[in-house]
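debug: dumping io for the single-chain case to check the tokenizer round-trip. Nothing else runs in this session.
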Amino acid sequence: MDIEAVSQDSREKYVFLFSDCVPVKGHAASAIYDLTRGRISTFPSEYYPFLESIREQRLGELLDGLSEDDRAGFLELLEFLFDNEYACMRADPGAFPAIPSGWDAPCVIENAIIDVDAQHHDYAKIVAELDALGCQHLQVRSYSLLFGASELGALARVCHGTSIQTLQAILVHDPARSDDDYAAVVRGNPTVISLTLHSSDEDRKLEVDRGARGSSAALTKAEISFTTKKLESCLDCGSITVGALLAPTTPTFNELHHLNGCLNRKVSVDASGQLRNCPAMAKSFGRHGEVALAEVVAQAAFQKPWRARKDEIKVCQDCPYRYACTDCRALLEDPDAEDSKPLKCGYDPYTDSWTNWRERPNAMATVEEYRKRHRLAVLAS
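debug: decoded output
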């Protein structure tokens, strides 16, 4: 694109950033969230001020008010916007209103976690209470062979006919079970949308065909992932990597803009039966069976973490990816500061770089501190 020619031919027009292409300011890098195509593109934050002025002045007015150096930077930003189809030229950008930024869901609880280790829970009672709260998504994580393929199948049947639309499972791989055993559970229970088998002897994937034919076949297929990694406890969670970032959509962007991406409308039953916002969080709201889920989630103290916004968290508030990040309020870089960044985040917004969070000073010592607080065995170095 000849950006110089475009800028001269469109001096009387406005640069219009499409309503579904939302700018997010960061420290070293800023971003454009493409909510329709589900992608994020970054650019140097020194160009961000240009985005704040393009809706207020015509292109010619903007260019005439810039120094030579600023003009070059502005044209570079324009080329980035046009090449990625994030913007166009319009005589009247006011004819294109902004997308509403609110978020809500038709439920009291949207998602839940059940952890299983040395004891079973009353799964039927948990599901019935979640159904009453309108819960749509359930994840079960097992740290022992106590909860396996048979138990997953039974849980899926309990979820049938309730508000729960999806069931995700992370189970210990049982070498006594064949691939067909696991595939049969997934194939026979459409609610089970993903199954990960940790502590396996190799890393591999198994595709499960649910019998659909034609164009719908790809939509109904499921995948079983085998991984050699071991899931030891609820602390083996909360890692924030490039691959873990959410593809931006209007609902997810709006939710993460106003609320916490991990804890909002979530309830958990930990391995010992305690009710928590997340199994890895310190505060318990009572044991399931002794207190009702509806009573717990109605408490102001329980709902407080739902509103832990990234704009109010140190370091995160300067991150261009903060509205695509689920965050983690259970494992913090500073365990005693509620507004600390997540411990397991490897991104530095001040250098715009990703590194291994484990290599940060004191990171592994902080992990051991959390293990002590949860009374888990301290890992050997």
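debug: round-trip ok. The first strand starts at residue 14 and ends at 17.
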